[in-house]
Input
Amino acid sequence: MRAAPQTLLSPRSIAIIGASDDLSKTASRPLRFLRGGGYEGTVYPIARRETVLGERAWPSLAALPERPDHAFVLLPTEGAMAAVAECAKLGIPAVTVLAGGFSEAGPEGLARESALRESLRGSEMRLLGPNSIGLANLNHRMVLTANAAFAEPDLPRGGTFVASQSGSMIGAILSRGRQRGLGFAGLVSVGAEVDLDVGSICASTLDDPQVTSYLLFLETLRGADTLRDFAAGAAARGKPVIAYKLGRSQEAAELAVSHTGALAGEDDVADAFLRDCGIARVDTLEGLFEAPALLQRLPIRPAGSRKPVIGVVTTTGGGAAMVVDQLGIRGISVEAPGEATRQRLKDAGIDPGHGRILDLTLAGTRPEVMGPALDALLKAPEFDLIIAVAGSSARFQPELAVQPVVEAAKGGTHLAAFCVPEAPQALAMLAAADVPAFRTPETCADAVAAAFARREPRASATVAAVTDRRERMLDEAEAYELLADLGVPHAPCVAIPAAQAGREKLPFPYPVAVKVLHRDILHKTDLGGVALGISSDTALRDAATRIVASVAEHRPALGADRVLIQAMTRPLGEVLVGFRRDPQVGPIILLAAGGIMTEIYRDRSVRLAPVDHGTAREMIAEVRALRALEGYRGKPRGDMEALASAIVALSRLAERDDVKECEINPLMVLDEGHGVMAVDAVIRLAGFQGEDISTVPHG
Output
């Protein structure tokens, strides 16, 4: 990964190209903010006048007495392109471009973007933008942005570094974070990421001791590879990364040939990608600001860890119930203290009660009660996090309400607090002591769920690149041959012309399934192309005739005249296992409840591919419908290890360069010890330039 140059965030000299003398114009802000923020480097305003805001201006970059470290281009689109080309020729290390009119402006904009990239070719210059509103390194006192929010005096300095794909959001994050006591090391608007992207910029700060955490505002996953490498570096250094990503809605259409595309839409893939990178994805904007303190205390849990268990202690049952409810919505369990912990509470003179929460009532407002209660809970091995919920005393007597929490946090890292009333003084006390504190139950649960959803970043696996070649589909028989090569078993079958069906002995007994066989027919049932439970030669002949006629009626141009005859089996259950190459994050593997109801229930698990057996088992545990196959209420247990092996095998398609998409639906799960069996498959290959698809054998 090629990180951003040091001159991007810590330049010794800056040229502002297109600086304005008019205070009402956006182009006047960068110079004003640099001076107002106390920047100690040299600033060169480039303008067609002798002075800008009382400072000497220069007519061109060539007229400067030195080559600046960083140039901020404020010119309109065409002028900006010319300025970038000049900066590259002069060898300026870093350039930021404010102007729009590029990829967002259609074909002409794309051509301009291509010209920008061409300007960079052969030079060492790095480009931020276009469409970047600028950046700030508060620890360097460098505020190089046109965002009006940075006009505030005494900008809050701290350890949080922000990278945003939305330009205006760096100002919103600055102002909202300030109200919550959050200080910033730097904030960057990445714009269109023609060159520098979120991952490469953040990676350049990984070894900066003044940067302790990262906030990302994402609209897309451009530069997924660099983002993944950065996130792994951040995890290795114990620096948490929190992301708010747009796109939770289902409007993001996925043009894929299989159910896998519909099930693993853009946001599902983004969610899996961020979790696999060890990035905590929050659902609420407030969670973006309040999660960092929690993640500083909660490291990423090792693979295979049990589901997290939360303990809640409170002085107000209603306030605690709100937290429990919000955690439950997100699948996080709140449990009562175990027997050993209950005994410790009793020994301290505290009634542990019988519910999920430890409700101390008004007695808990006394430090001599809350303190021992927290001590007992923090020592309890059954809890992964303790949440202390403070009632109205947090507003009127904050020193009583939260001081025990502050003291307990010194000896227990897995502790957070929620204040039910509006309690700014109590929250300030908690923030000063680095205790994670939340203003709403929704934000509290959001941050907790995001923290525990992270997975240990995996080293980047060997993934083959698939070039843009002519594509082709495999028919079902061909698909089974490929699956067999991977080690995924399929039901016994034969492919024959429909006219021969029922006229020769089958290599397996009746009953059988009969299906139309054609690479251009993916959903056979929709065309009347499937018949099940066929039990004789006569019935087989009739079924094959009906199938060919039905398909011809629906799609006469296909000329489908072959059928696949397949042995039938009775499974314990059905699943869908799918593989595809996402255009942004690369290969993914999906597991879902199988059969015709797959898309309706959307009960699935997604990971980056390839995966190992441990990850495959985690995926199985995440699909709710599969609990019925694990010996539920004395029922037979399915062969879950064989299912895990099939998931791993299919995920290894990531290591091949010829498969774009593969889906088995359904994959039959048989009794434990009897394996799994594919009974339908869709595979899309990358073809070869000049290949005549008509010559490919049909199996």
